[in-house]
């Protein structure tokens, strides 16, 4: 009996499930997956027609492994070919502009050859030609004046930004251009860009009466101070051109590649005319140093590779590596590196001008500008950024009827940021000759604080208790600066003494008027 029960129990214990054989699992055919006419439904029907659940799971795992492998290969290929892609894109854009310039030069050579083939004129014809040239020059000046007058009529407030100057004329214009934010690539406004012989005028499109659109002058740049860079053509970001004016950066998007190339050609023609008259070489844009590289005698392939690597470092915003490389190239006497150094310094200046930047980032940017020889510009950009930080913090304060609380918070913001700025300045700019700029900046910020204080306290005719409380809050913050070695009480006395005197005299006049009125109405006398 026991042996019979033992045999039945052994029959009930199930054994382990057999693993599916390798031949039963459908194989993933990468060849069929990569075909142009691949259809997923037909492929799954053919592959999984007689497959079991376990085999389907194994097939899915194989598909996921194939997808991960393809993703890794794609990522490696992108990293491997990124530098070549950037370099080739710049080469293509520069070649397009060079071809357009070459066509115009060839056309000019043909015209010059036709003129050389003309017979030698006699004396009478030479006199007539000189007279014709004088008349043509006079007509040209009249035409330039008409162009400026038409521009002033078409674009409002343009005469203020682009006044009359001898020889100034319109080279061309680009219409329906989008001004973008350099950080977010969001459209700020629609503009027209007018390229003149020595300036670039940006006119904003705004709505006038009804549905009519009018042009209003927004800003103007001197052509000698701007650097134009072709950002590139991308389906995601559009056809972009970057204009750098000293430490300011502006980004403009065009509708197509032809419109962008035409604008770049206008800029090159205008600069060629301007710098031909002055004899100075025009500043090269960020991506157009190739033409000057070919003029560097003895520049071998190794130097060309270093210049290309410098372009890539700047495009990737790898400022430390770019600074090391540009200083090395300048030490070897490479002329093309000077233009790249200026472009790199402008980008670092743009970062330094960002308000509310961290101390480490500010120190890094100032250090890079010091190595590039832009100490004066770094000093101005640093102080301008600190002023912008004070303005931003001031705008965040709320004035809800309590003047004493507002002035207290305002004093904390102003004087503590002034103290932090002085501490940072002493560490970043060790040259004693630069301390005068900091003193002038502190004096300007003190004047700004006095303007706000005067508007809310003295001009609002506050009571003497309120005036005294606001002055005490201000003096408390100034005392904190004094303990740190920065005594600004004399500046505060210079700013507020005339206002306090006027306030006391006004109070005295009001008190005398009230007493006189009360005495006149008193019937006890």
Your description of this structure?
Strands 1-5-4-3-2-8-7-6 form an eight-stranded mixed sheet. The chain has 17 helices and eight strands.
Give the uncertain stretches in residue-range form: 1-18, 274-299
Average pLDDT for all residues: 76
Percentage beta strand: 5-15%
Largest sheet: 8 strands, mixed
Q: Helical percent range?
A: 55-70%
Task: Summarize the structure in short.
This protein is α+β, with helices and mostly antiparallel strands. The protein has helices at 2-12, 30-33, 40-47, 53-116, 123-154, 158-161, 257-278, 290-293, 301-315, 319-331, 336-352, 359-372, 375-395, 403-428, 435-458, 464-483, 489-521; strands at residues 155-156, 170-180, 187-196, 199-207, 213-222, 226-234, 238-245, 248-254. Helices cover 63% and strands 13% of the residues.
Question: What is the topology?
Answer:
Elements: H1 2-12, H2 30-33, H3 40-47, H4 53-116, H5 123-154, E1 155-156, H6 158-161, E2 170-180, E3 187-196, E4 199-207, E5 213-222, E6 226-234, E7 238-245, E8 248-254, H7 257-278, H8 290-293, H9 301-315, H10 319-331, H11 336-352, H12 359-372, H13 375-395, H14 403-428, H15 435-458, H16 464-483, H17 489-521
Quick tags:
single chain, alpha+beta, 8-stranded mixed β-sheet, extended, disordered N terminus
């Amino acid at each position: 009996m026991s042996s019979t029960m033992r045999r039945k129990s052994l029959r009930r214990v199930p054994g382990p499930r057999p693993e599916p054989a390798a031949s039963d699992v459908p194989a993933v055919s990468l060849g069929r997956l990569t075909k142009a006419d691949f259809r997923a439904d037909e492929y799954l029907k053919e592959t999984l027609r007689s497959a079991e659940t376990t085999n389907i799971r194994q097939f899915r795992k194989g598909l996921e492994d194939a997808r991960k492998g393809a993703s890794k290969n794609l990522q490696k290929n992108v990293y491997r070919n990124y530098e070549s892609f950037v370099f080739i894109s710049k080469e293509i854009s520069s070649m397009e502009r060079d071809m357009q310039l070459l066509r115009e030069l060839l056309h000019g050579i043909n015209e010059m050859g036709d003129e050389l083939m003309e017979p030698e004129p006699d004396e009478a014809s030479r006199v007539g030609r000189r007279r014709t040239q004088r008349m043509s020059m006079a007509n040209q000046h009249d035409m330039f004046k008409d162009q400026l007058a038409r521009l002033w009529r078409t674009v409002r407030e343009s005469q203020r930004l682009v006044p009359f100057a001898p020889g100034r004329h319109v080279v061309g214009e680009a219409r329906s251009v989008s001004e973008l934010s350099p950080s977010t690539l969001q459209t700020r406004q629609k503009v027209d860009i007018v390229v003149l012989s020595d300036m670039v005028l940006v006119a904003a499109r705004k709505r006038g009466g009804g549905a009519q659109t009018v042009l209003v002058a927004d800003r103007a740049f001197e052509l000698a101070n701007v650097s134009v860079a072709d950002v590139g053509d991308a389906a995601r970001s559009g056809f972009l051109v970057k204009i750098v004016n000293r430490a300011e950066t502006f980004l403009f998007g065009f509708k197509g590649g032809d419109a962008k190339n035409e604008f770049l050609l206008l800029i090159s023609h205008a600069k060629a005319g301007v710098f031909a008259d002055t004899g100075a070489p025009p500043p090269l844009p960020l991506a157009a140093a190739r033409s000057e590289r070919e003029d560097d005698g003895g520049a071998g392939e190794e130097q060309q590779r270093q210049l290309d690597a410098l372009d890539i470092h700047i495009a990737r915003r790898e400022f430390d590596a770019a600074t090391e490389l540009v200083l090395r190239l300048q030490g070897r006497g490479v002329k093309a590196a000077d233009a790249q150094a200026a472009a790199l310094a402008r980008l670092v200046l743009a970062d330094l001008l960002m308000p509310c930047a961290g101390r480490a980032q500010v120190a890094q940017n100032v250090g890079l500008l010091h190595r590039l020889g832009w100490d004066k510009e770094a000093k101005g950009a640093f102080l301008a950024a600190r002023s912008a930080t004070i303005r931003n913090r001031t705008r965040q304060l709320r004035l809800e009827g309590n003047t004493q609380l507002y002035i207290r918070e305002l004093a904390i913001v102003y004087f503590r940021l002034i103290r932090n700025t002085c501490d940072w300045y002493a560490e970043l700019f060790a040259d004693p000759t630069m301390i005068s700029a900091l003193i002038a900046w502190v004096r300007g910020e003190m004047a700004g604080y006095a303007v706000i204080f005067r508007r809310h306290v003295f001009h609002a005719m506050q009571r003497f208790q309120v005036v005294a409380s606001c002055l005490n809050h201000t003096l408390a913050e100034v005392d904190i600066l004094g303990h740190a070695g920065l005594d600004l009480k004399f500046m505060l006395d210079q700013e507020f003494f005339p206002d306090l005197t006027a306030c006391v005299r006004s109070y005295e006049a009001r008190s005398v008027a009230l007493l006189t009125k009360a005495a006149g109405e008193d019937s006890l006398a």
